[in-house]
Amino acid sequence: MIQSLLIANRGEIACRIIRTARAMGIRTVAVYSDADANALHVRDADEAVHIGPSPARESYLVGEKIIAAAHATGAQAIHPGYGFLSENAAFAQSVIDAGLIWVGPNPSSITAMGLKDAAKTLMQAAGVPTTPGYLGDDQSLERLSAEADAIGYPILIKAVAGGGGKGMRKVDIPADFADALASCRREAASSFGNDSVLLEKWITNPRHIEVQVFGDTHGNVVHLFERDCSLQRRHQKVIEEAPAPGMDEATRAAICDAAVRAAKAVDYVGAGTIEFIADGSEGLRADRIWFMEMNTRLQVEHPVTEEITGVDLVEWQLRVASGEPLPKKQHELSINGWAMEARLYAENPATGFMPSTGRLDHLTLPSNERIETGVEEGDVISPFYDPMIAKIVSWGTDRREALTDLQTACAAVECEPVKTNAWFLRRLLAEPDFEAGTVTTAFIGDKIDTLCAPPVPSKALLQYAADDLAFSSAHMPSSYGSAKYELTKTCFGFRLNAPANPLVRLLVDGAATDISVGEKALWNDYARTSVSDGRETTYFEDGASFVIAACRYDGAGGTAASDGAILSPMPGRIIAVTVAAGEAVTKGQKLLTLEAMKMEHSLVAPFDGIVAELNAAEGGQVSEGARLVQIVQDE
Predict the structure, then answer these.
(1) Which CATH class is domain 4-103?
(2) Strand 536-541, strand 584-585: pairing
(3) Quick check: helix, strand or coil at residue 485?
(4) Span 133-157, mean pLDDT?
């Protein structure tokens, strides 16, 4: 058995591997970049080695540094996790050549499955059903266009290398083919250094079904059943579940047997995933499911398989890499219950899924479900890496129980000031089509405007905030209105020595609304709050956060008055300033444009007023939280 293990990764997967290794009595070594010097995976490991600057290409993607760290610390084996170098055949071979154990498939298996066209040809020879299409070497526009006509539109152009949706285009009509091909090739060449493509028939009602396979060095290969990963955004998985809804035993047997044949065709060792595309227009049928590609590594969504099988897949990886046979045979594996996983990201769906970086001043994750995370409260979400905060995993005796538990868990997420997609996940899980188990990979894209509409606080939360902010001395600056009240808090609200039910004007994320106070707010439902300063409080509801301030309290509403500070949401560069100091502006008017993380973000006026302060200039670099503009009301 391996005695010491270096994890060539970071974040939640590194923490996940460390947890299992420690339970097996294996010493762990972490590697880290400048940005991750104080990261959770570094704190969790028995030893940690610095491998370079923050950009991944200068640290986590430099194989020589990782191998050197293994030798320096006496590690026997390297586990690549997923992403980074996990499917890099050259790195895998260099690990083996360095006399270390590679916790993963043979480099030849990675190579065989690394190019989609070659993999499909191999699968056809092994009797695995593949999507109708073109895999030829002739990459001329004339040949590809003719093949597309023969396949029949709509068709899908796919780069033969890489993944993640890059180098992929759907084409609906022949007139669009040439432009789509050129765009696809440019993106593929830029991302993968290979502009070759293949063509596939577009599946009208596509569902993404994948099968977990596992092989050992003794020639044994088993499957651990299927997962449904159809809920995707731009080819990136959002919510996964196991087993797949609507899967009957005959279809399950057919797809899982095909996955085992696929793994055996490349002498597969370790954990891998065979991905299939299914035409769900008539339910799941064995003759309507086709091979897409193989991921020669552990998958992000592996916990749902672990939950329904009772298997620790990382433990299996370490045992197989140590030369042991698979711990279980096929007939010893079975499905127990249902599991779902939601990917919690530091991003704001209401602003085009703009990443949200910074310190996690307040972070509460659900305590009743399995949580896979690489951060804790007080840690920092860096702009250098994938902004995943956690994976939230639920298990139930049936799909309804697993779904209900995951809905509750996503609603319980609290994070401030970093924004998350928790409310978006909660909204997805409540969609009738998802509850019915009938969504396709196009579901999110088709309903993106509805799903990403900014959340609004409930009447109950506004009532609670009105009472809380208006009557708490900690939130009542002397400038808030002229009326003064003697206030006494009771178990349900307040007793007022003032006119009945006076009004408080609240600013909810900058928008004004008037609420009557003293209405017996639902204290127990909203007891968890996070005070951000002396005048504003962040309230959490259904996975969303709302920054609320009381701007006037005199029983009659009045003119809203927030502090009008426009802060930079993240580090970036000012590329346009459209106002000047002293200029009058209206609510919603664009003040400036910030370029950050390769995206442009417009910052607008929260209300009508005057630009009292301007601290931004075109071309200037700004840090997160910097005050760029100060708006005051024109008295």
Answers:
(1) alpha beta
(2) unpaired
(3) coil
(4) 94
pLDDT, tens digit, for every residue of 589-616?
999 998 865 567 788 888 889 999 999 9
Instruction: Give catalytic residues, as residue numbers.
Output: 297
**Could you tell me the CATH superfamily of domain 132-201?**
ATP-grasp fold, A domain (3.30.1490.20)
For the ranges 11-15, 530-534, 630-634, the maximum mean pLDDT occurs at: 11-15
What CA–CA distance (Å, rounded) separates 335 from 319? 22
Higher pLDDT, 155 or 606: 155
Q: Tokens standing for 362?
A: 């307040």
Q: Are 625 and 565 in contact (CB under 8 A)?
A: no
- Choosing among 3.30.470.20, 3.40.50.1820, 3.40.50.10680, 3.50.50.60, the CATH entry for 206-451 is 3.30.470.20
Q: Which long-range contacts (CB under 8 A, 24 or more apart) does 60-68 make?
A: 60/8, 60/9, 60/10, 60/31, 60/33, 60/84, 60/85, 61/85, 63/88, 63/90, 63/91, 63/94, 63/95, 65/31, 66/6, 66/8, 66/31, 67/94, 67/95, 67/98, 67/100
Per-residue confidence (pLDDT) for residue 543, from 0 to 100: 95
The SS3 call for residue 559 is: coil
Residues 124, 135: Cα–Cα separation, whole Å: 11
What are the C-alpha distances in Å from 82 to residues 41, 79, 85, 217? 15, 9, 8, 21
CA distance 475 to 469: 5
Domain boundaries, the chain: 4-103, 132-201, 206-451, 459-553, 565-632
Reported as a single tens digit per residue, the pLDDT across 201-260 is 889 899 999 999 999 999 999 999 999 999 999 889 999 999 999 999 999 999 999 999
Question: Can you tell me the distance from the alpha carbon of 23 to that of 20, in angstroms, rounded to the nearest whole number?
Answer: 5
Instruction: Report the predicted TM-score, pTM, of the whole model to 2 decimal places.
Output: 0.80
Q: Residue 282: its pLDDT value, please? A: 87
Instruction: Classify domain 565-632 at the CATH class level.
Output: mainly beta
Q: Which two tokens stand for residue 361?
A: 């001043």
Secondary structure E strands in 67-154: 77-79, 101-102, 133-134
Contact 439, 501 (CB under 8 A): no
